[in-house]
Each structure stands twice: as structure tokens, then as C-alpha cells.
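PROTEIN ENTRY
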Amino acid sequence: MERFTQNVGENMISYLDQGIGETVVLIHGFCGNNKYWKYIVPHLAKRKRVLTVDLRGHGDSSTPKDSCEITDMANDIAILLEELNIHRATLIGHSLGGYVSLAFAEMFPERLKSFGLVHSTAYPDSEEGKHNRDKGIERIQAEGIKPFVNDLIPKLFSDENRETLSNYVDDVKKIGYKTSNYGAIGALKAMKNRPDRNHVLKNVDVPVLIVAGREDKLVPLDRAFSVERSLITSAIIEDCGHMSMFEQPEKLVEVLENFLEK
């Protein structure tokens, strides 16, 4: 498995490129990186070319000096695909990655074959959510990324899985530690500032997949399934919180493969 890097403007994006076929881009969530998909990629790469990217400020990608918006992260993906001569692709985004996928669909609809939101939402932050983003920024500024990640990650798993899958919780924490302070702060600000993008789900002309965890406390079902259309496929994963790629990887693989093969 070889890691690649690509300059996108003044930033550097790190990614893995595996498999052959139509391109699927997997985009991780906040304080994640390409390793979020390590149990998913081996299955999808049997039939698809799978790119797993590290968003700016995360993993091995560079951290911009200036603040950014979700649209900037989407533009990073667009530049990467252009440099790789990939004209159309499927984007699958987890949480923050879903926000990026929605922004990409709004900005570059002609470059999408389809896209998916995994434990994500088209709604903007609530006022309480924005307040919590500010609290997160203050904590990272005061204490650094590690205490923040130690508190964040267990909340992403369902109550039961937090105990039974404690080794995975620890793995995800280690992934989170690779997020730079500035990268996490920039992402928190970008998520806080993102607009409502339900109009994208209502108007887009490509197939859309929406995946939600039955026990997800961060993105409950009513916020995940905000629009119903014939082009939208909805899937609920049982016994799962916000991290199906670790909590129920086999079920997530099944959902993704069924969608991609349609």
C-alpha cells in the first residue's frame, strides 16, 4: 500500500490509491484520516478504484495557515481528482466528510457519478451545536488535541459498543491524535459556519446514499434523513452509533456495495 501526496494550491493532500475501476473517494470525519476506512477499502477495491484522502489539517495532509470553509475542503478534492485525470467519481463522506461531499455536489455536480453521506446531515449546526464548536476550539487552544480527542471519540460509539469495542475506541483515539491543533480548530470553525445544504439533496441529479446509525447521538435519524426522493437511497445500520466503519463494518460494506453496484 503506497501513500501519495498532491499539491493543491498552497496545501498538500495525502491519500491512498487502491484498486482498479470506477473511482470512489472515501472522505473521513472530523479528527479522522484515511485509516477510518481500513476495514472498508479491501472490499470495495476488489471492483473499484478507491481513493482515501486525508482532509487538510488531518492525518498526513498539511495544515493551512489561514482559516478555511467546507467549500475549500471540497475544492481540495476537486483539484486532486483533476490532477489524477479523474473526470467523474463517487464521493462517500463520513460526518465532516459528508459536509465536504455535499459542498462538492453543490459546486461540481457535473463531476459526480453519485455520492453518499455516512452519519452526516445536510442541516447546518444548531445554536447549541455552534456553542459546542466554540467550546471545542477553546479547549484545544488551552489543552491541545489529545484531551479533546480523548473526550470526543467515546461519544461517537453507541453505549454498548463503547464497552465491547474498547480496542477500536482506542484505535480511533490514536488516529485523532494525528490531527494538528490548527487543523482541528479550522475544521470546527468550518463546520460551525457551514450553511444548510438540503437544497442540494432536493435538486441533485445523481444517486445519493444516506446511511445512519440507529443509536447515533450526534446525527440522529431525523437529521440524517432530511429529504426523500427516488434518487435517494436510505439505510439504517442497527446496533451502531456514529462509527459504522468500526462498529458494524460488514454491514456498512454491504450497504456501500449494493449502492455502488446499482
